[in-house]
Design goal:
Elements lengths: L10 H5 L1 E12 L23 E3 L5 E5 L6 H18 L5 E2 L23 H17 L1 H4 L4 E7 L1 H10 L6 H27 L4 E3 L11 E4 L2 E3 L26 H13 L13 E4 L6 H8 L3 E7 L11 H16 L8 H15 L6 E4 L2 E4 H18 L5 H12 L5 H11 L2 H18 L6 E4 L7 E4 L1
Antiparallel strand pairs: 1-3, 1-4, 1-5, 2-3, 5-10, 6-8, 7-8, 9-10, 11-12, 13-14
Helix pairs in contact: 6-9, 6-10, 9-11, 11-12
Amino acid sequence: MLLKWKDRLMEEDLSQGNFGIEREGLRITPEGVLASTPHPEVFGNKLSNPSITTDFSESQIEMITPVCQTVQQVYHSLSALYRQTIVGLEKQEYLWPQSMPCVLAENQVVPVAHFGQGVEGQALTNYRQKLLEKYGPKKQLISGIHYNFSFSESLLKKLYESQASSMSYPVFKEQVYLKIVRQYLRYRWVLIYFLGASPVVDASYMSECDESLMKIAQNSYAKQGAISFRNSSYGYQNQIPIYAQYQDVQSYIHSLQTYIEEGQLLSVKEFYSPIRLKAKDSTCLMESLKKDGISYIEIRSIDLNPFEPLGISLADMQFIHLFILFLLDSEEVESKDWQQEAAYNEQRVALNGRRPFLKIQKLGHEILMSDWAREILEKMQEINEAFSLDLEKVIRQKMDQLTDPQETIAGKIIELTKQSNYSELNLKLAKLHKENVLHRSFPNQMFKTLDLEGEDEVLSQ
């Protein structure tokens, strides 16, 4: 769709849009244990503060950027929010840098977030209590990055005017976003491989995993080739597979309402899809989708990168944006059980992605993951070159990570964990990130982490 009409499009049409980031993280003690203190008062009312609030737990901070027009703007906005958050923490508290939980003391009570005594606040607290009863406390603490995005109206209108179609502009716009969602579900394994950063869990989380994990350091467990436990069956997923329909907004709404009526979902908020359709009014999602259409999409597969203070680098934000452009340009091929196949590929890569010669499914046939990923990166490079997006360095880094899985974020985490252990590594990173905010220049793309043998090692993500 993009390359076909490249003569009618400008770089600004592609690079600009609406971007927003939600970044979750656990507050911890100097010992690396979940903090039991209330949400810091300095951040004000959790209901009324649009930028710094909580998610499931009182100990789980969530930062929410305003809507920005470029990737660079949202990165700098998140940087400012992160600094504000770190400065506002208690002196002896830190922000856990990993997606998977910190050390959880035996029989530790996980404090559910409280939103006051008002009707809205009580409803939010009661909903979290129901989730606690349904899923247990440990999975509720899993944290990550949500990447919110919508295309510029300039791009959408130029694409619409280029189509030989009788559909209205609102219908065309809806179909563009639905295609992005369907294609994202098919190709989400790509982001899991390159951005997955949760290949290890602490011993205190082992009750949520099966016995196939191996001990790689004290109280630290992994799986050979694992990349992202958060995006696997060990992470926070619906108890049964939820396959929404994406032909149009009406079918999407009807399919989710059916799951709710059958008791499989408490509400639409419990639909833990790797990507969601979002509406203008998030408080009445279904009604707003019907009335106003799709406002933006929310990508939810992104792990926190523990080597990055913000949990994500600017380069990886740019990579995600280029990946979305690839999804828009890609040809969509229908198949009967495409959602089941997509879920299978997600699990394969999340738990085995660094294994050599790993095979996943493509339209019912097995294919080497590395071959398919290389083909996708080459298509992304075509888009980059056609529109002079200046992302050659980003793509080259991903090619290197594909050639050598040890160069992935997950590969580096495994090696550093073996030198110490899961808790010690992430606690040192948490303290180092806070130190950088309070006493050094920030942010820094080339981030120095503590080498556990005593010397500094540069890990550029």
